[in-house]
């Protein structure tokens, strides 16, 4: 005997059946949702995202498609061991067009500036070819600008205090020059961040720099204008070509 | 003072040449700060130019109160951050 309940449509067309499992050990219970309407999901179904809630089950990354991996985390460090400079050299510029450096640091020397230079292999690019400008906000309706050309370094941010709530917090986008770029096309940097100065005053600053040199570069160097970084944390990302 | 750098996440000592260069650079920065640091200090502290514009407007109407206050604020910034002698 087939244990099945069959509901025929009123028009005599299709039908809907409920049938119990054949094995005596397979007692199954389907509980209908306690709402006005319910929908059973099959492989032919599409899910209405507006009706989903709660935590999704684990999904393997291998099964995901259409997710871009063009923005790649390369390094992540947080340290309270002082260093004089933070250097990245021989970065993979064949794969990555640009690099994003998310950085926070506290200088040892009160009021030190934050400086940047490109690297070519293990050599610091320090010809007098940096042109840079910073625009800053020092108060409601108060701002300041600084611009220098043909210098040996780029100032990313002005002086930061060395107390715990001072220092710099910034995001720097770095675009090195590589062999396939047109002459003098890249070697530029843009950034936006903030600092608290030696008196604890908050300053917002943004800027951009250009290293007018056709040499290929594949790294960068960050240092305080004086003294070490006391504490720092950073994450370096690569942006694919 | 022994100096070191973090290269691709690895701590490396400065070479003697790098240390000499760094010392010279820091000395140059200090000399420049000592001579010109007051300019930056003043720049961040001057009252907003919008206050100056407003003060000029009222001055043109015969009320110099705001303009005098603006000049006094500028004077204080200069006094608090003197040019090195």
Describe this structure in words.
The complex is a heterodimer of chains A (241) and B (85). Chain A is mainly β and 241 residues long. Chain A has one domain. In chain A, a hairpin with a 5-residue loop joins strand 12 and strand 13. Chain A starts with a strand and ends with a strand. The model of chain A has no long low-confidence stretch (mean pLDDT 90). With 85 residues, chain B is mainly alpha-helical. Chain B folds into two domains: 37 residues; 40 residues, no CATH class. Chain B is 68% helix and 9% strand. Chain B is built from three helices and two strands; from the N terminus they run ββααα. Chain B has a two-stranded antiparallel sheet with strand order 1-2. In chain B, strand 1 and strand 2 form a beta hairpin. In chain B, helix 2 packs antiparallel against helix 3. Chain B is elongated, with a radius of gyration of 22 Å. In chain B, 8% of the residues are buried. The model of chain B has no long low-confidence stretch (mean pLDDT 94). Strand 4 of chain A pairs parallel with strand 1 of chain B, so a sheet runs across the interface.
Quick tags:
heterodimer; A: 241 residues; mainly beta; 8-stranded antiparallel sheet; 15 strands; B: 85 residues; mainly alpha; 2 domains; two-stranded antiparallel sheet; 3 helices
Q: Topology, pairings included?
A:
The complex is a heterodimer of chains A (241) and B (85).
Chain A: E1 4-8, E2 15-19, E3 71-79, E4 85-88, E5 96-107, E6 112-120, E7 123-124, E8 130-139, E9 142-151, E10 154-160, E11 167-175, E12 188-196, E13 202-211, E14 219-224, E15 229-240
Antiparallel strand pairs in A: 1-2, 3-15, 4-14, 5-11, 5-15, 6-7, 6-10, 6-14, 8-9, 8-13, 11-12, 12-13
Chain B: E1 4-7, E2 10-13, H1 16-45, H2 49-60, H3 65-80
Antiparallel strand pairs in B: 1-2
């Amino acid at each position: 005997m087939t244990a099945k309940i069959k509901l025929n449509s009123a028009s005599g067309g299709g039908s809907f059946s409920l049938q119990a499992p054949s094995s005596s050990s397979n007692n199954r219970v389907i509980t209908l949702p306690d709402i006005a309407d319910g929908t059973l999901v099959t492989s032919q179904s599409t899910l209405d995202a507006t009706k989903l809630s709660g935590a999704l089950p684990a999904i393997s990354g291998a099964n995901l498609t259409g997710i871009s991996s063009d923005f790649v985390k390369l390094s992540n460090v947080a340290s309270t061991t002082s260093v004089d400079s933070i250097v990245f050299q021989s970065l993979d510029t064949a794969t990555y067009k640009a690099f994003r450096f998310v950085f926070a640091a506290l200088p040892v020397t009160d009021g030190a500036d934050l400086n940047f230079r490109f690297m070519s292999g293990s050599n610091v690019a320090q010809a007098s070819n940096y042109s840079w400008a910073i625009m800053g906000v020092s108060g409601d309706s108060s701002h300041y600008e600084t611009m220098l050309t043909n210098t040996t370094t780029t100032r990313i941010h002005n002086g930061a205090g060395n107390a715990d709530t001072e220092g710099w917090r910034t995001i720097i986008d770095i675009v090195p020059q590589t062999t396939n770029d047109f002459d003098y096309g890249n070697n530029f940097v843009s950034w936006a961040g903030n600092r608290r100065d030696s008196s604890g005053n908050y300053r917002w600053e943004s800027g951009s720099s250009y290293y007018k040199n056709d040499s290929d570069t594949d790294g960068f160097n960050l240092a305080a204008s004086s003294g070490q970084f006391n504490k720092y944390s950073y994450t370096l990302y690569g942006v694919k070509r | 003072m022994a100096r070191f750098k973090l290269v691709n996440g690895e701590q490396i000592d400065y070479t003697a040449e790098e240390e000499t260069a760094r010392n010279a650079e820091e000395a140059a920065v200090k000399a420049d700060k000592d001579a010109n640091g007051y300019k930056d200090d003043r720049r961040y502290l001057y009252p907003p130019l919008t206050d100056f514009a407003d003060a000029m407007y009222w001055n043109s109407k015969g009320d110099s109160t705001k303009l005098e206050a603006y000049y006094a604020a500028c004077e204080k910034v200069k006094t608090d951050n003197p040019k090195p002698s």
